[in-house]
Amino acid sequence: MATEVPAEDYDIVVFENKFPSLQQDLPEVTEKDPKFFKHGKAQGICEVVLFTSDHDGIMSEKPLSRYIKLVKVWRDRYQELGAKNFINYVFIFENKGEEVGVTLHHPHGQIYAYPFIPPIIEQELNSSKEHLEKEGECLFCKTLKEEKEDGRRIIISNDSFTALVPFFSCYTYEVHIYTNKHIPSFNDFSEKEEIDLAVILKTILMKFDNLFGFILPYIMAIHQQPTNGTGKEYSHFHIEFYPPYRTKDKLKYLAGSELGVGVFINNSLSEEKAQELRNTPPEGVV
Amino acid sequence: MQIHKEKIKKEDGRYLIYYTFTDTKEEKEGRDVRTEMESHPEAMDNNSHSSTEQDL
After folding, report:
1. pLDDT computed for residue A92 by the predictor
2. Contact flag A73-B3 (C-beta cutoff 8 Å)
3. DSSP labels for A92-119?
4. Nearest-5° angle of CA A24, CA A26, CA A30?
5. Contact B24, B42 (CB under 8 A)
6. CA contacts within 13 A on the Cβ side of A249
7. Rounded Cα gap, residues A89 and A242, in angstroms
8. What pLDDT was estimated at residue A199?
9. Test mutation, B20, B46, B53, chain A, max A CBs within 10 A
10. How do residues A148-196 score in pLDDT, each as one tens digit?
11. Buried-most residue among A158, A177, A219, A254 (CB within 10 A)?
12. Cis before residue A63, ω within 30 degrees of 0?
């Protein structure tokens, strides 16, 4: 990252993506009056977050303090980008490993600030809103309550967060981290919740890297409240991890059923995979 | 832990933000995250993988 960051040593750095999918200042679309295909400006902001100045660093080996700093930076970016009037959703994510197409190996993540609410988030929020209206409870609060009552799919938990392999997992080692209470976004985090999230994140990453004896690739997605102010009652902060490996030497591919008709085939049991992750060091609840 | 940021503009016009952090007085007196982790030493263990990552 020497070409991107002037300083050799730093703590955490955020910069605008050199090849952004979305940009702040764009010319108006010149084509007038579309007959059928609608189009608009790809307006937004794309940032890169460098988690450390250690180019070859392994995040699961980093101290807890690095995770706490990262959570604070994520929170700050969510707030600063979300305050812009043309941004409706701030999506914080990480693509990790060559298996998911990553060519930059320096520990880093990305942030896309969209002018709209992305479709998966919109569907998720609509479902949660519908459940709230029918049952009087946020869908995620209910899901977590059910998972806790059952217990078999829970990996670890602390005062503020619970990590589990969801009942409805699409990927073998899919892990979701939920806030224990209804917290819509980073805006609503206390300092203790920042630390508790850091503890859970570090523990899950250690488990991932100890699972097969190599650094487990994954896609990480942070879902939270849209920054246009909607959905506070039914947005529930959570993080989703999608590791592409289904065994030590087999990858999950999206094929006919998944891409052709949208039906995920998962030949593993969430309960067994949660048990496997529970037994992977570090064991127990941290 | 307090967060600080310094925003600069790069030669090509893109912004870059350096984030730095300072311990609060209370943390310096020992009630920092290390204390939090001391009761959970397993969370501080390192795994033993060597990096397979390549340079850019």
Report:
1. 98
2. yes
3. EEEEESGGGT----SSEEEEEEESS--H
4. 155
5. no
6. 0
7. 21
8. 96
9. B53
10. 999 999 999 999 999 999 999 999 999 999 999 999 999 999 999 999 9
11. A177
12. no
**Cross-chain Cβ contact B46/A282 below 8 Å:** no
* Predicted complex ipTM: 0.93
pLDDT of residue A3: 80
Q: Answer whether residue A283 shows pLDDT above 70.
A: yes
What span, in angstroms and rounded, lies between the C-alpha atoms of A115 and A272? 40
List the catalytic residues of A. 108
Strand partners, A95: A219
Phi, psi of A148 (to 5 degrees): -70, -40
Cα distances (Å, whole numbers) of residue A34 to A26, A43, A93, A277:
19, 19, 33, 51
Please report residues of B whose CB lies closer than 8 A to that of A58.
47, 49, 51
State how far the Cα of B30 lies from the Cα of B33, in Å rounded to an integer.
9
The H or E element containing residue B9 is strand B2-9
- Checking phi first, is residue A202 left (phi over 0); if not, alpha (psi -120 to 50) or beta? alpha
